[in-house]
Amino acid sequence: MYWDNYSDVNFLVGVNGSGKSRLLNTIGQNHLKRNDHVIAISNTVFDKFSTRGYEKLSARDGKVFLKNIIIDSFLNENDSIYNILEYLKYERFVAVLISFYADFDGDFLSYFIRKIDKYNKFDIPIDKDFIDYELIELKKFCNQLEKLLRPYSNYEYIFDFGYWMGKENTVNLSIFKKFYELFSNKRIFKIDFLLSKDGKRFKLDGASSGESHFLAQMLFLSEKILKNKKNIILIDEPEISLHPKWQREYVLKLYDYFYMYDLNFFIATHSPLMISKLQVNRKDFYSDYIGNINYKIFKVIDGDFERIQEDDDYSIESLYWEIFGLLTPDNSFLSRYCVALLDNYDLKKISFYEIKEEFKKLKEACDLDLQKQVLMDIENRFINNNEH
Question: Where are the beta strands (DSSP E) in the chain?
Fold first, then answer.
């Protein structure tokens, strides 16, 4: 099933097993048939996206993918990584951290010769070539590395080449490219990155999983979104690993950074926090684009869907009830909602049967006996007295 009446940002909500991920995949397949560019991001290891036709990022790739996409940025001299880091409140700084193995004795030449010989004799995969080198050229290259690399610890060195501006950084970058192409994936070194935030430098491996996932997604989209084509962005469960603050900011930041492109977001989520900030922005009177993001919410049941018509109560409690049929403890929304129901009944906007059914659903959703008792009292005092 598919529909054309979608918005800039579209949320697919529902309980586990309702078919949200399958519906995302169906949307993607239909847009592929229209020759649109489809990008899929799965934040769960249970990746249900098709392997054909999509540009895809999966949680299965973990931080390995983030490292690879940063390396690709360097190799392709793509400076968008600095813009994204700055946008996410990092400093415009990233340095490569090279880690050699424990048998490194400080002599680059002897270390590389040992490792190359071992690789060529014992470690080379069947489908790969030997590492071929000339001793004179390798000596020259090691001399360049000695001048460029700065010690970080016993086996770690910093490869810092700035923002590829200026002759020196261009030379340094070319040395890194040669180093990576010659020795990567050959058990000669390991790679990490140094980032900086709030004046503190730290390894990428030390960043929170939520921040690293978001950074990876931003970099992935910046690489894959096309300028002259409609882009369909499918995102499954983005709230996984994200702090509540990042959940609230997630859609706004994606839309804010990429709004100049022709794109539509389809987001399957369990988190009302993903939606709440957009609702608040709509309620406030913003004049810029970010305050007026067009969005729709669709509830998915057994692979089918219906649009949720929102009320004017933009609290998290309201979202939990509207979208998931859940009432939270100490829920002030419940009081407001009951008053609104009674008012609508008095104004004959809803029938006796409809208000009875709504109170039945509310009682079934309650976890607290106090909430159930309050609802029963309201029924007895205001509803059952009007039964006729």
Answer: 9-13, 37-42, 55-58, 94-100, 150-151, 156-159, 189-197, 200-203, 231-236, 263-269, 295-301, 304-307
Q: Long-range CB contacts (< 8 A, 24+ apart) of 134-141?
A: 138/109, 138/112, 138/113, 139/109, 141/175, 141/178, 141/179
Provide mean pLDDT across the span 367-382. 68
Calpha distance 300→74 (Å, rounded)? 42
pLDDT at 285 (0 to 100):
40
Helix (H) / strand (E) element for 32: namely: helix 20-33
Rg (CA), the chain: 28
What confidence tier does 319 reach under pLDDT thresholds 50, 70, 90? low
The CA–CA distances, whole Å, from 338 to 258, 333, 359, 384 equal 41, 9, 9, 15
CATH 3.40.50.300 location in the chain: 9-57+231-307
Mean pLDDT of 287-292: 54
Q: Assign 99 to helix, strand or coil.
A: strand
- pLDDT tier at 331, thresholds 50, 70, 90: low
Mean pLDDT (the chain) is: 79
Cα 141 to Cα 131, 132, 172, 263: the distances in Å are: 15, 14, 12, 46
Q: At what angle do helices 62-75 and 167-183 cross, to 10 degrees?
A: 130
Is the Cα dihedral 83, 84, 88, 92 positive or negative? negative
According to the model, what pLDDT value does residue 163 have? 54
- What pLDDT is recorded for position 99? 92
Note the CATH architecture for domain 9-57+231-307. 3-Layer(aba) Sandwich (3.40)
Q: Which two tokens stand for residue 94?
A: 């990233």
Q: Collapsing DSSP states into helix, strand and coil, what is residue 17?
A: coil
CA dist., res. 271 & res. 238, Å (int): 9
| Burial of 217 per CB tally in 10 Å (0-12, 13-18, 19+) | buried
- The pLDDT tens digits for 43-81 are 876 677 776 788 888 876 666 777 888 888 888 877 788
Beta-bridge partners for 193: 96
8 Å CB contact between 327 and 371 = yes
Q: Cβ neighbours of residue 344 under 8 Å, at least 6 residues apart?
A: 350, 355
Which value, to the nearest 10 degrees, does the dihedral of the CA atoms of residues 268, 269, 272, 273 take? Answer: -100
Nearest to 119 by CA among 107, 133, 102, 134: 133
Global pTM reads 0.73
